[in-house]
Amino acid sequence: MFNQQNYGISEESHMSQTGKLEVVSKQTTKVIAVCAKLEWKIDQFEKLMKLFKNGQSLVSKQFSCPQAPNIIWELHIYPNGKREEDVGNVSFFLRQTGLRNDDPLMTEFQIYALAGGNSRVSVCRDTKDFVSQQGRGKFQVSREKMMPSIKIDGSLDLVCEVEYLPPDSKIIVEESTSKRFDRCEFVNSPMYNVFDNVRKMYESELFTDCVIIVGNKEFKAHKCILGQHSEVFRSMLNQGDMTEGKDGIVYINDANYESFRALLNFIYTGSTSGIEDFADDVLMVADKYAVLPLKEHCEQLLAKNINVRNVTRLLTFADTHSAIALKQHCIIYIAHRYKEILESCDWKELKKGNSELANEVLEKVLNLRSSPNSSFSESFDRFSSLKSNYDEDSPGSIPYYGQVTFIRETPFGSPGTPYDNEIQPASFERERSFPIARIFFDDDDADRREPSGNPLPKRRRF
């Protein structure tokens, strides 16, 4: 049997998979580059671009790096171009003036402007070799492209960074003295991202086994993923006596292409980006196919935009699609702005077309405004510090809270200070929020009952 100790082999030696003895010599090469940096503020640069003659230049003061003081740099700027063909452009030149020999110095440099908020606007970036007294890098930037870099007062904040290896710098190669690594780091190693892999599988249509047809367009999908995220899809695709289960073809006749694509995108990636403008359409699709996390997110988006003009429409919409959190936000908003809303044409239409809903809301508004032990107005005053614009176009707007409930003896503010029947901020997360049924009932069984005005199936309880 081969014995490392008997043969005097160090820890740096090991047997390869092919049975060969490998001895690794670990070495480190140390290279130190230096950087010279110029920060240059030019007043009234916007005027200089118009008033300077073609060929007239600005020259910065010389700058260098303490580690290489014999290498000196200058930046030349021609606000109206250097040559006649450059008129209307800004010309930039970098010049090296320190070295006295003709050996070129390889340099990497970049020039950029600092715009508002110190954001960088790149002018140029390049790698060139410089000899003494030579200007390199004639970069032309049009006036139009320079304008975003000009500050309000017309000035320009310019930065030039020059990185290079000094001619006398030494490149040192050292042997590693340690027999083992002190630590192991993975730099820029790609993370195994499940969502990203599922997204790629969806986009590439890899191993798809069902087709969803919306209008004259189709999506290819995977039954297992649809069924995992939607009880409705699971039921449709799992029953052999249904067309969807037999053929794997699902026809969608009551949704548009964009909203259904948003639903599939959420199912496969968890992303909700870009749905703000049609969150109501997405909510309807998510409600029909029981994708509740997406539905709740749409409720949140819609609740953030409640105002006097749309609250009645959103109330009706929320009641139709069992969007409890959105409906409750509408009720609280109506209670706060009831004079304007109850006199609106939309409210009058609601009373004619859906008197049951109108009466339900009025009853809850009355209860809110007459809640005992703490006045309704004081409750909103306490929330004024949270400052979330619910209705930016009119005064007295209320903040956005997520799902709102009334809970007896719930501390408000500092712990240990109970307030009865206070309005409490809560999350849209079902498992962390208090039962919304308590806002409708005063008995001890409230947390085990559904709101009488809008019952939901047991599987959809908040």
Automatic annotation (TrEMBL):
Residue ranges of the region described as Disordered: 442-462
Domain BTB per the UniProt entry, residue ranges: 208-276
Domain MATH: 35-162
GO biological process: protein catabolic process
TM stretches of this protein: none
InterPro entries: BTB/POZ_dom, MATH/TRAF_dom, SKP1/BTB/POZ_sf, TRAF-like
Domain of life (superkingdom): Eukaryota
Protein name in UniProt: BTB domain-containing protein
Taxonomic lineage from the root: Eukaryota, Metazoa, Ecdysozoa, Nematoda, Chromadorea
